[in-house]
Specification:
Elements (H helix, E strand, L loop, with lengths): L1 H16 L1 H8 L12 E2 L14 H34 L15 H30 L6 E8 L2 E6 L6 E5 L21 E4 L3 E8 L4 E5 L4 E5 L5 E6 L4 E7 L11 E7 L1 H14 L16 H8 L2
Parallel strand pairs: 1-10, 2-6, 5-11
Antiparallel strand pairs: 2-3, 3-4, 6-9, 7-8, 7-10, 10-11
Helix pairs in contact: 3-4
This protein binds copper (II) ion.
């Protein structure tokens, strides 16, 4: 009896001693909170790509603008030539048509210059294709499975396993700080600054795993695994959407990604396992968990 009172007092003392620490922790139980500092989301009247959030997207962004400049030059040049020919060689000014059919110099120029332009474009293009294909040595591999109409994320190599579903927050349940049609109940959480490999497939129909700010876009095809990788240097929240028409709620399966520091990520793994992971094995292609109430929520808006 005496012993139990002593230990109770000891426990109370410890509680008091660390009370302020517990309080500080209680205010930030969400291990992904760091990702709220920077939100990379689309905005009204947005032009161009979103701000690049991965090295691949930096490359894609650069190539797009590079080709666009070349294309603009070609269109302007050809447009001017066309306007000149239309006026200078119009029928009213040239009652007797010209008989010229060949000009060697002009013909060499119009072969050589376009060839050089194509060569200039093809070098960074092939470079980009090789960069996209290099998914070797990832820190983490996440298997992404498209379902009608939600995503399932399975983390490979996590002790105890980690597999969960991610549903869009219905319009009538949006909370302050969430983004309509983009925020989800359980985002994909990734360690910032680490190479991530995605294995993408589908449990039913074609979906599209599309993360415009992270340079990721792959079809999700039943029975087939496509791979893609990313690396997110900046801690923050990033968004994507299914971009392959997949049925009536195609617009209700956004992708929300929280990139957080590695230590936070390791905490989150335990948090997710305890709170919302489905089970410890990869059920994607074995069964298709369909929480009916969530599906009803997603369609009522
Ligand atoms: Cu889809």
């Amino acid at each position: 009896m005496k012993r139990s009172i002593t230990s109770a007092l000891g426990a109370a003392g410890l509680l008091a001693l660390f009370g302020h620490m517990a309080l500080a922790q209680a205010t930030s139980t969400d291990p992904t909170a760091a990702a709220n500092a920077y939100v990379n989301a689309p905005h009204n009247w947005q032009m161009w790509f979103p701000e690049a959030g991965s090295p691949l997207q930096v490359q894609i962004d650069w190539l797009m603008k590079f080709v666009l400049w070349i294309m603009t030059g070609v269109v302007v040049f050809v447009g001017i030539l066309l306007a000149y020919v239309l006026t200078r060689y119009r029928a009213s000014r040239n009652p007797v048509p010209s008989n010229v059919t060949h000009n060697t110099l002009v013909e060499v120029i119009w072969i050589v210059i376009p060839t050089l332009l194509l060569a200039v474009i093809v070098i960074p293009s092939i470079n980009l294709i090789y960069s996209e294909a290099d998914d070797s040595n990832p820190y983490l591999t996440v298997t992404v499975t498209g379902h009608q109409w939600y995503w399932e994320y399975n983390y490979s190599g996590v002790q105890g396993g980690l597999d969960y579903t991610s549903y869009m927050i219905p319009d009538n349940q949006i909370q302050p700080g969430q983004i309509r049609r983009l925020s989800v109940d359980h985002p994909m959480v990734l360690p910032a600054g680490e190479k991530i490999k995605f294995i993408i497939n589908s449990a039913d129909v074609l979906h599209g795993f599309y993360l415009p700010s992270l340079g990721v876009q792959r079809y999700a095809i039943p029975g087939t695994n496509l791979t893609q990788w990313t690396l997110i240097p900046k801690v923050g929240t990033y968004y994507g959407q299914c971009n392959q028409i997949c049925g009536i709620n195609h617009d209700a399966m956004p992708i929300e990604i929280k990139a957080i520091p590695l230590a936070d990520y390791l905490n989150w793994v335990k948090y997710a396992q305890a709170n919302y992971a489905l089970n410890s094995f990869a059920p994607s292609l074995i069964s298709s968990p369909l929480p009916v109430n969530k599906l009803a929520d997603a369609s009522s808006n």
